Amino acid sequence: MTTIQDSAGGLGLASPHTVNAIRPLIVVCLVSHLMGCRGDFGPDPMVHHELGSVQALDVDHTGVAVITGSGVFRMPAAGGDLDLIDDSPDVCDLALVDGAVYASFEAQVVRRVDAEGELGVTFRNEPPVCPVLGRSDDTLFMGFEGFSSGAIAWAPVGAAKLPEDAFRQVEHPVIRVTGDDEAIYFVEASREMPARPVFSLKRSPREGGDTMVLADVEGSPSNLVLDATSVFWSERRGQSIVILAVDQQGGPVRTLAVEDRGCGNHGQVAVAQGHVYFGSHESPAGDGCGGTYLNTLSRVPIEGGAIEDVLGKPSMGFIYKLSIPDGRIFFVDGDTRLGLVSSETLRSVPLP
Length: 352
Known about the structure:
Helix content is 4%, strand content 48%. It has 352 residues and is mainly beta. The strands form 7 sheets. Strands 1-6-5-4-3 form a 5-stranded antiparallel sheet, with no helix packed on it. Strands 2-29-28-27 form a 4-stranded antiparallel sheet, with no helix packed on it. The chain has a 4-stranded antiparallel sheet with strand order 7-8-9-10, with no helix packed on it.
């Protein structure tokens, strides 16, 4: 078994300072000396692993699962080494559902990768595009993309096959998906005009019934997340990040915040304790996109309001992947300060 040693030595140990962490500190402080190194606030994140490219991250009460260029890895909830559990070169998305690791592959296949003899699903349509995955605490949700149509599906953790009526064809390719006990929520991308796809957020009851359009999505959406009553996501509009929500039963789309300090980069969002968390950045030197950034973990109340920056460190890149289980924030950030992603790092901090 291939393992990657945890540089934090577990959640209870302080992170070591490395050459890679010190060098960005010097760069950012030089360009922001007039601001008093504003980009250094909040608790010091625990640095678990330098990972290179990270395609997907999911965290639940049992641990952490990530996809890198080398395959699917998992780390225990208490921290520690990353263990390789699947080295397939075509893996592209994952979901960690009550300790079970599911992954999707380029041949439109979804299967459990940490146990034999369990769920395997194939959507036979052209072209073969990676399925997208989402989850609740005990259910896996799947979205499939064909040339002009798509499909949604779900299965309880540990199932050997899909339940009856748990696979449905939908009108357009599915690019985002999540769900709960009552419904599956997904974003379709109509590509009748390939250069300008039209995105729609929809709700389909799991027990059957009419699919409802919840929102027309203007920009390419982030992941979808739920609380007890609403669906949350972010969009890029020009050089702004817009944080949005809509009631699960339908209604007007609510704009919670518009983040216009950066260049419109937007990664995953997460919801915890009445706030939506997301990655943000700004250019204190005023050199615009591609220049030097101060990257932050930010949040906004689920009712909307002022954006609050809760974490910013000179060694942090932009936060692309984000997951919040059991009172701790796990995130993957990439070094974008000079306009290039040179490495991506798995870190965690306590929830404020």
